Amino acid sequence: MPHPAVRVEHVTKRFSGHTAVHDLTMEVQAGGIFGLLGPNGAGKSTTIRMIMDIIEPDEGKVVLFGATGSGRQLSERVGYLPEERGLYKKMKVLDHLIFLAETKGIRRADARKRATAWLDRLGISDWAQKKVEDLSKGMQQKVQFAGALLHDPELVILDEPFSGLDPINSQVMRDVVVDIAKSGRTVLFSTHIMEQAERMCDRIVIIARGKTVVDGTVADVKRDFGGRHVALSFTHDTEKAGRVLADRHLVAKVDDYGATAEVEMATGADPEDLLTRLVREGVGLKRFEVVEPSLQSIFIAKVGDAAIAPATGDEVGP
Amino acid sequence: MSKTFAVIRRELVERVRTKSFVISTMLVPVFMVIMAVVPALMMSGSSRSMRIGVVDGTSTGVGAKIEQTLNTQRLSEDSGATPRYIVTRVAASDRTDAVRDSLVKHTGLGKGGKAADALDGVLVVRDDVLHTGKLEYLGSNVGSFEAMGRLEGSLRQVITGTRFEADGIDPAVVARAMAPVSVSTTKVSDGEATGESGGASFIIAYLMGFILYFGVFMYGQQTMTSVVEEKTSRIMEVLASSLTPFQMLLGKVLGVGMTGLLQMGIWGGTVFLVTSQRARLAGLFGLSPDAIQSLPIPSMAPDLLVVFLVYFALGFLLYGALFAAIGSMCNTVQETQQYASAVMMLIVFGFFGVFAMINDPTGGLGVTMSFIPFFSPFVMPVRWSLAAVPPLELALSLGLMLIALMGTTWLAGRIYRTGILMYGKKPTWGEVWRWVRAG
Questions:
Q1: How far apart, in whole angstroms, are the C-alpha atoms of residue A31 and residue A185?
Q2: Which of A7, B62, B231, B376 sits CB 3.0–4.6 Å from A63 for a disulfide?
Q3: pLDDT digits over B52-81, tens only?
Q4: What's the CA dihedral at B362, B368, B372, B375 to 10 degrees?
Q5: Exposure of A302 in the CB half-sphere (CA atoms within 13 A)
Q6: Pair type for strands A6-15 and B85-91
């Protein structure tokens, strides 16, 4: 049995009065994509900073690769993209990447080669001799992303990697992340956008208010959550649908997104009855599908509506 | 180690590449050459005779004596040289003021172009001059200290001599008594004459005091600002995931320090070159070597250059570490001011020590300050330039400096460690103390 890439054991971190992370235990197996999910302020970034040994836990410990060294001593094997992006504004892009590689212990000549290759791969090689401050925010993020991956780390930790990116750039980075996982390395990324996690992650942990709420593979989490779910899309007469969905004998719970909704059937109710009722009311239906619960609805059920951020798509920043 | 080296290289290269560094580094040597050459050029302009009209209102013949004395003066030592003064004496015993006014019209004071034979000035001698000792000079060149000093010297000699003679003293005795006296000053170091004149060591002492003060101040501030910038740009977190706080602190301070040392080296080297190559420099600007040699250009002996650079380096490291620690405590440059003022006070005290040292190079205050680590970077190089410093005392001063440097770096490292990841409100002194003691 190989060592897990990351093991967080009963970790607690307090900041002047409030507890950011409370007795958190989680394990990230080597290989694959691991999602650390949670609403804003759940303690995701604090957990990641403790994994990176930037801050120390008050209680408990973090073990990387089953080794004894701290995150910083093992930093040659870890790539890190912090939530708050930061680069030296006045430096040239290529010089900056070389410097970041050097801080990971890579020799200068090698660093230059790698940096050039990454700039090519991310499609920003024309900007290599430009100053960082001349780049758009999205491009700066790509540079920083490259900086975290230059040294081919076996564990890549990305804190909200896709926030602030347009769909095209977001896709470029998603491809890179998937490639890393395919090559047998480990990616741990945090997000509060469930669709993203659902599509990419093999395993997830959902934390809220500093505690673990859900832990497991995406498939297990969905099966354990149980219930029969129906995904709906409407074309017209949406308000009529509201009356049908309000019937608690038929529907236990509704996540209403306006033009679409995901409902959990009440115990003993039949999805076919729901379809009949909706058609009889004259609701315009584009989609009616019995589905597994989405991570989004699991998340809302477990964390509570109050804690959730507006999830309108991939590009919502913190 | 190679990681720290990467940080040092980044700091040095990025700083040296900035426009402000290039400009300030170039400007000082240019300024220095100008300072050396321009006064010499101006002095060479004064190598022409000065035309003086003497309005003689005396009946005792003092006016004639003045004319006679001035006429004997030459621009240089040999007797065949150009006369220093061309004197036109106008006897005007009863209408002194009227003659004076009409002569003034012929000086450069009047409007319109100046004729070739125009007077540079008008000297008015009145009958009561022996009694009051007062003469009047109106001229276009009264601002020239050198010309006026020389003229006044000659006149004093005539008046004093005439007074003696009026009291019946033998003119030969008077002439012997009035023979000029001058003191030439040469600095002695380690029992050997260095060949530097007193004036030159004075200027170099001042110059060094200022450069050390400015250098430590400027580069210290730069260190602090760049730490704050790393915090606000959030690059700190990326760095903190790969580098230890101590590597970051060391790299930052050494990198900025080496930039400063490079600049100081270029400046110091320029002074050294300007002084050792002054003859060639004079030739370049068409000046006689004598003209430039006669100026008190600060000369920088190689040993002084070394002491200067060593103390600048150590002084900067000492203050740089403190400034970096302050930067790590704050989120904006404005916030740093409160804490930085304490450190700046130390620098200013050190700078005052330079003046104490210049006033009395062997006095107790200056000598004591040349041993105290926070002041010695400013005071010791100045002391070295002004007086002979026993090697043992230099070693003691350097030793104390190194001990203080280790203590400060340790302290700064502890503050830095916690400070760099602290955002939000600025800490109180009590909190800072807790950071130092923690872990």
A1: 5
A2: A7
A3: 888 888 887 888 888 888 888 777 666 667
A4: -50
A5: 25
A6: unpaired
- pLDDT tens by residue, A273-305: 888 888 888 888 888 888 878 888 888 887 774
Nearest-Å Rg of the Cα atoms of chain B is 31
**Structure-token pair, residue A155:** 């564990």
Residue of B nearest to A144 (CA): B238
Sign of CA dihedral B338, B343, B346, B348: negative
Return the amino acid letter for B208.
M
Q: Which residues does residue A59 pair with via DSSP β-bridges, in sequence order?
A: A12
Q: How far apart (Å, rounded) are the C-alpha atoms in residues B290 and B296?
A: 12
Indicate which of B7, B19, B226, B237 best probes the interface with A, i.e. most A CBs within 10 Å of its own CB. B237
What distance in Å separates the CA atoms of residue B220 and residue B38, rounded to the nearest whole number?
Answer: 34
Cβ contact, residue pair A54, B237, below 8 Å: yes
Q: Contacts of residue A104 in chain B, CB cutoff 8 Å? A: 242
DSSP-derived letter for residue A3 is P
Report which secondary-structure segment, H or E, holds A42.
none
- CB distance A177 to A158 below 8 Å: yes
Taking the alpha carbons of A192, A196, A201, A203 in that order, is the dihedral positive or negative?
A: positive
Task: Kindly report, residue by residue over A153-193, the tens digit of the pLDDT.
Answer: 989 999 988 887 888 888 888 899 999 999 989 999 998 88
Interface contact A39, partner B, CB < 8 A: no
* DSSP string of A163-198, one letter each residue: TT--HHHHHHHHHHHHHHHHTT-EEEEEES-HHHHH
CA distances, B67 to each of A26, B62, B118, B150, B155 (Å):
106, 9, 18, 15, 10
Tokens linked to B362: 């062997």
Query: Which residues of chain A does B10 touch, with a Cβ-Cβ cutoff of 8 Å?
Result: 88, 91, 99
CB B331 within 8 A of CB B231: yes
Report the gap between the CA of B414 and the closest CA in chain A (Å): 14
Interstrand relation of B121-126 and B186-189 (parallel, antiparallel or unpaired)? unpaired
| Inter-chain residue contact B240 with A54, CB threshold 8 Å | yes
